[in-house]
Every structure is written in C-alpha cells, then in structure tokens.
Model the fold of this input.
Amino acid sequence: MIISVKNLVKRYGDLLALDHLSLEVNEGEIYGLLGPNGSGKTTAINCILSLLDYHKGEIEVFGKPMSPNAYDIKKNIGVIMQNVAVFEELTSYENIDYFCGLYVNDKALRRQMVEEAIEFVGLNEFRKFYPKKLSGGLLRRLNIACGIAHKPKLIILDEPTVAVDPQSRNKILEGIVELNRQGATIVYTSHYMEEVERICSKITILDKGKVIATGTKDQLKSMITLGETITVETYDITKDQIELIRNLPHMSQVEYKDNLLIIKSDKGKNNLEIILDFIKKQNINFGKIYTELPTLNDVFLEITGKELRD
Amino acid sequence: MFIHIFTYRLKCLLRDKEMIFWTLLFPLLLGTFFKMALGGIHDNSFETINIAVVQSDSYNVSSDFKNVLERVSTGDKPMFNVTETDILGARKLIEERKVIAYLTVDDEIKVFVQQSGLGQTIVKIFVENYQQSAAAVETILMKDPQNMDTIGGLLSTRHNYLSEVPISNSEPNGILIAFYSLIAMTCVFGATMGLKEVMDIQADQSERAARSSLVPVNKLKRYLYSMAASLVIHFGEVVLLIAYLHFALGVDFGERTPYIFLTALIGSATGLSFGSFISSVVKKSEGIKTAIMVSTTMIGSFLAGMMFHQIKYIVSENVPFLAMINPVNIITDAFYSLYYYDTLRRYWLNMGLATIFIIIFSVGTYLVLRRQKYASI
Done:
C-alpha cells in the first residue's frame, strides 16, 4: 500500500472540510480524486503531505506514519501543486535543477535527471527561458518538471490542468500515463471528469469532504441505474408522442429541448431498438440519433442529485 | 546542500531587480541627492553683512563707535558693509532687503530688524558687546582714572576661565548624521530580503513555500542557508554604499575601518532579522508586510535624523527609550560614535543594542518557523 488514510477529519472553524475520509492507494495505480470545487480534494492532499493539521485520523505513506519530518518518505514523493510554484528569477533549467537538487546530492546524476525531465515535458527549446516568458501551458509543464525530476515513486498532482490549453492538457495527461508506465504511483485530483475517466485506474468521488463512491470507472458506473442516454435530433415530435416514449419499458427520463430529444434509460437490453421502432411507427422525422454510456457526471448526479461540473 | 541552496539564493537575489533597486540603487541616489542638498552647509566662508546706520548728531559725535564700525568694516573679510543714511533711507533699505538691519545711535544704540536670522543675531551681539565694553570703560574711568593706561589692554585681552577638554579629534558635524542614517536605513531595508526568505519557507504563505516544505531538508536549515545568502548580498550592498559615500562623495567615516565593516555587518543582520520577524508574525499578504516594513523603516530613519539631523537629539533628550528601540537610530549612532568619539564605549553600547534586536527578532522568527503543520494554507 502506498497511501492509507483512515477516518480523516479536518475542520476549518465550523466548516467540516473532511468528514471521516478514508482511502487506499495501491502501488502502480493512477488514483483519481474527483469532486467539484470545494469538495475537499486539495485539503485531503495537504493533510496527506503533512502540510495541514487535522483533527482526527491516521495517515500512512509507504507503510509508515506521515509527518513533517518524515524525510525518508518525502524523498520518494513528487508534488505538483494547483498553482505554479517556481522562482521567477531562475530559468526553466535552473528551476528544475534547484528543486531536483533538494532531493539529489550527486551532481552528475542530478544533471542527467534534469535533462530527462526537460525532455519529458518538452521544454528543451525553453530551458533558458525565465518563467515570465513562458505561456500558461509551458509554465504548467515546467511546474510538473520541477515536481518529477527526482524520479519519485509517488507523484501527487493537484489539478495540474486548470487553465491549460487543450494541446498542453493532452501532453500533460499523456505524460502522467507515461510516468505511471515507468513505475510511479500517481494520485491525480481534478474536477474534470473526462480527464479522470481517461487516465485513472481507480477513482474516488468526493463531495462535501465525504467519499461518496470508490472504484474503477466501470465499477462506479455499475453502481447507478442509468443504462444509457439516447439522443434524437428531431423537429416534429408532439407532446403526446413524448408522453408515449415515457411509458416505454426502461425509459426513466425524457426531455425535449432545442430540437433534441434526450432519453435516459435504465439498464437493460435493446433500448435503442425500442426507441427506433417507436420513431418508425409514429413516422417521426429525425436527423441524428446516438447513444452514450453513463459518465462519471451521471454517477455523481445520481448519487448527490447535482451536476459534478457545478 | 548548503552550497546548493546558498548558490541558488544568491542567483535569485542578484536577479531580483526591484529588490536591488530599493536596497542599493535607491540609497546611492539618495546619498547623491543629500550631497547636492547639504554639501555646502559646512562651508566656512563668511559673507559680509549689509547694515545701515542712521546719521544723527549723537552718531556724528560718537567717534568711538564710528571707529569700531570702521575697523570691522574694512580688511580682507569685513564683518559689515555699512551704509550711512537718514532714517527714511534706512527704512527703505531694509524694506528692499538691501540691508538686514539698521542702527540708531542716541543715548544707547538700537538695532532694528525686519526678521530674525544669523546675520541679525551677529549685529545684535556686536552692538551688545560694544555697549558693555563702553560701559566698563566709563565705570573704570570714573572710579580709578589712574588706570586709564591699562584699560586698552583689559579690553583687548578677553580671558576665558573655562578650559575646553576635547572628547574628540574630529569636528562635530551634524550633516554626517544624514549620511549615517542613510546607511542605517539601507541596513534596515534589508528587511525586504528577510521578508522574502520567510515567504519562501512558510508553507501557508506561498505556493513556492508549500512546495519547498515537501522536500526532505529540514526547514530551519533551509532558512539559515537562504539567510546566509541574503546576508552576503546585503552586507555587500551596504559596503558598496559606504565606499560610494566615502570615495565618491567624500563623506568622512573616521579612521576605524574594521569597526565600520563590523557595523555594516551587524546592521545588515539587524535588517534581515527584522524583515524575517515581520514576515513571520504578520499573517497578511506580502504587500501589507512590505508596507509595514517600509513605513517602520522610514519613520525610524526620520527619527534618526535622516531628513533633519536635530530630530535625533530632540528624540534622544526627550524620549530616550524611543531612541534606544529604533534600529535605524542605533546604527546611525554607531557610525557617528566611530567618527566622533575617541573612545568606543558608546559604539559598543550601540552594537550591543543591535545584537539584542537581532536575538529578539531571530528568536521570534524561530518560534513561528518551528511550526511544521498549518491550520490552513
């Protein structure tokens, strides 16, 4: 076990930020902490890293109790904070070298590690650039390089793609998967469900400081009743016909808005076929028709009654 | 690890243009400005004072006074340039500021001025001295006319019954206070560096500090290594300023060079520890901390005599405690002690006070820094 958190409680005054939070991160996982803003993701990370005081609970990292002076644990952790944390007065190379040097004493080894980190995040052309000369995406990559250059066994990334362009976001996500492939265990926090769904092998969904679900993405999706969402583009459907669809088997929710008929169906076979039959019999003209499997947002919505992106 | 952190901190500090401006270039500019503004004040040249004397019968018969006036109004550096005129002419001259005073001679000599000043005071003292001497001669002649021959010698030979024991080989010079307090202000401005060091150490104060808190190096070690770099840079800046003031602007620091370096070092450490302390105890934004630090330093500099050197003596006489708790004043006083006093007693007192400040600020900073976890970030 890489991280073990049991019954973690953290309060900010009257606000209960973490409510008996428990989680386990195993070696080799890309562990996603998913939740809306303010759900307690960053607080949980800061408690795990011993930056924040907490009121109750136990935290172990690499099988040992975590504390501010646990240097043998810290030397194997790399952290990429939500905001860019580099020195404006140092070049990209110097920033990476500085942070790497706090972990690695051997100069030759450090030089090699810094070069590899620069190569990994694609900052080769920008090694002599000062941070203020870098674009937002490049700055994020520099931030990541500073956190991973010393080749940690555990890498914690706290919302590393906030305010990043799609190209850099892709690069970052691919990089995370590659780091995991090279042997690092990853803890990844985000409120972007698509990212978590794309890269994480295990996901914990947080809301109001509580764990509301944990598992692989398939396990999470199997927890809910929603089977699929069928969307039909149509211009001439009547209210009576919509009502008839509602009464079809497995159809749990039907909405018609902006010429799109959105039908949510429970788990079951042939839902799309049933809808197509109905449309044919009723002579309803339609444009596109497509079906989507449940997303993590659907999981969050069904459990909490609100959208994840809220 | 020391070399690694120390070297990178040196790089960061040397490349921080804003900080270098405030801790080095600004004092250099201010020193140059002081020299331009105050440089001529201690010029010993004396300007002849223009006065008028109202002609009257009494004046015309007062040959003694006329003789004395004539003697002080001739030569290489005459004291007075005298215009003899009637009363209306004298009033016109003073209104037009062509003379600073006019005299009338009747039973006694009167001085008329429009405003007070150094020249007016000299005229007044001259007239008072003359009248006292004339009265003394008159009294002696009335009581002992045989001694008339000795009167001339008595009047020309003024005895001073107080003997002056010099406490210094140097001339007292209030203007130097401005330059010394400028150096002291620069020392305390080092607080900006101390402030930044703590901002980069305390995880609840910046993202960078939070990242640094996660590395496997003891926090106090990181702080001390960084502060060592700050001390080297800041001490260098203060020495550069002193060198500029001395060699380029001709400011006199006396002969005790090693002590001057020691004062610069202790002064720099005082400033750095002050900044660290403010940064540690004030849980506000960097802007607010900087504002507190700058305003405290500027008030301290004013009270130490940077803008008006008499204020230093006023504070020392009336509120001595305030003078003792003002680091800028303590460092200013240390430099002045080195310049003016032959003994080092007062200098060591100032150095002792500065060291106490460093200890208080450092202990205060340590008590805050030793905290490892935070309630919020």
Summary: The mean pLDDT of chain A is 89.
